[in-house]
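Structure ticket #2291
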Amino acid sequence: MAKKINRIELYTQAASQLKVSVPASAMRSSKLMDGVVWDGSDPARYADAFKVRA
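Resolution: structure written out below.
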């Protein structure tokens, strides 16, 4: 789903014009402010870590 709605090409185009580097992978990992590591290649694992579910 993220690949469908995340407009990486727009960011890449703007960053290129501003000479800002872009990540090598659109589905990269990041450490969030709560210390949890978001792994873009496995978003289900992040969602499954929540105690409350719909």
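Closing remark: Strands lie at 29-31, 37-39.
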